[in-house]
Amino acid sequence: MACMILAASAGAVDAPGRQPATLYVAKTGDNSDGRSWQKAFHTIQAALDAVPDQLGGHRIIVRPDTYVEANLAPAHPGAAGAYNTLVGDCDGRLGSGAQGWVLVDSGDPELGFKSWDWWGTLRASDRLWPGGNNRETFSCIVWDRWQIQNLYVAGGDGGLFFDLTDKSGKGFTVVVEDCVGTGRAFGGGVVYPTARPGEPSVFRRCYFLALDWVGDTAAVLVGGWEKSMPEHPHAVFEDCTLVHPDNAVAISYASHCARARFVDCRMIVLNFTQPEMGGHSTGIICTQGHAATGRLHVDLEDCILAGYSVLTPGADAEAVSYTTQGTVQAYVQFKQPVPDGFQRLGLWPTELFSRIAPPRDPAELKQKVPGVTCD
Questions:
Q1: Cα-based distances in Å from 322 to 9, 113, 199, 309, 317
Q2: Helix (H, G, I), strand (E, B) or coil at 365
Q3: Is the whole model's pTM more than 0.90, yes or no?
Q4: Are 352 and 329 in contact (CB under 8 A)?
């Protein structure tokens, strides 16, 4: 499925003679039309505004630097077979002459971390929400069929998290590769599309971190719109690291049926609470507080998990189903059961916990680290 996505995004289907746009972002440019490094826009949003049409195949290339921007939204989505691309030129091969992260900081440049509802890297909001950035309703559907590469996002409520809001129930696909997504509530994820057979959203070689444990929060949040479990996943995560105080993967409170696939992923939860002292945990895979129609199905292949328990303790676990393939390992609190299909780890997984920190540079994120699983 993931390879099918990349083939579609690379093969633009264009009218004869049509040339998709290539736009550049660099603080070293003159901020004119963005058509070259010399004329580069100073902000990512300016380039997103300049995407000329919805025929797809357009590309935005960003020079490594820090961009203090929030609520990014393109003027147009991509197209089937012709994904648009937003790429950080992290190694200079695309002509920027620079190396390092393209850091998108959505915080307040003077006051710091801006943990405010509906304030994050990607624009999404709901005017019916009781607080936060709620002046209007806006949907991440505008990011449909975009491919995002080599970004490090931080400072806001949501990282690389796509919420369809009032366009929930539509088909939606995004490809995110070699990125770091951090936020108060979510590091990454996608909520409320209907699954496209053979064209799920794909998150590949990414690191996701969320910093809060109250309410609807997870390293990765997923949500679907179907009232019965779809045969195809809404999202696929490949070679990703998920870090969170209380759960790595969660179903959104307003979700109906959500399906996600995890291949060669690392899920690290920091809560190994002591219930005898009043501690609580929502589990590594969380279905706490789900709606009446909420169900989560996860397919796990060659993954390793750590946290208090694999699933949400108690009756909420009835909302989850799963499959395992290959070696799926779990390091949990000693009194907690390990579900069928999981290999229990009795000893501290040193290599896994060495992955808690975000990668220091893009090269570290792209590097394949063998041997994360333990004997």
A1: 30, 36, 21, 15, 11
A2: helix
A3: yes
A4: no
In the chain, what is the straight-line distance between the N-terminal and C-terminal CA atoms, in Å? 30
Instruction: Tell me the per-residue pLDDT of 64-78, one tens digit each, with 9 for 90 and over.
Output: 999 999 999 999 999
Do 138 and 130 contact (CB within 8 A), yes or no? no
Asked whether 245 and 270 are in contact (CB, 8 A), the reply is: yes
Domain range list for the chain: 2-16+53-366
Please state the length of the chain.
375
Q: Which of 85, 92, 88, 94 is nearest to 11 (CA)?
A: 85
Query: Six-digit token pair at 157?
Result: 């409520």
Q: What angle do CA 303, 304, 310 make, to 5 degrees?
A: 105
For the record, the structure tokens of 299 come out as: 């397919």
The amino acid occupying position 105 is D
What are the pLDDT digits (tens) for 345-370? Answer: 999 999 999 999 999 999 999 887 65
Q: Which residues contact 308 (CB under 8 A, 6 or more apart)?
A: 269, 271, 272, 273, 281, 283, 284, 332, 333, 336
Task: Give the position of tokens 């996608």.
Answer: 190
Cα 35 from Cα 60, distance rounded (Å) = 10
Q: Give the strands of the sheet with 241-244, arranged side by side.
A: 65-67, 102-105, 151-154, 180-183, 207-210, 241-244, 266-269, 304-306, 329-331, 343-344
Residue where the block lists tokens 């929030």: 70
Query: Apex CA 298: angle with CA 297 and CA 303, to 5°?
Result: 165
Answer yes or no: is pLDDT of 12 > 50: no
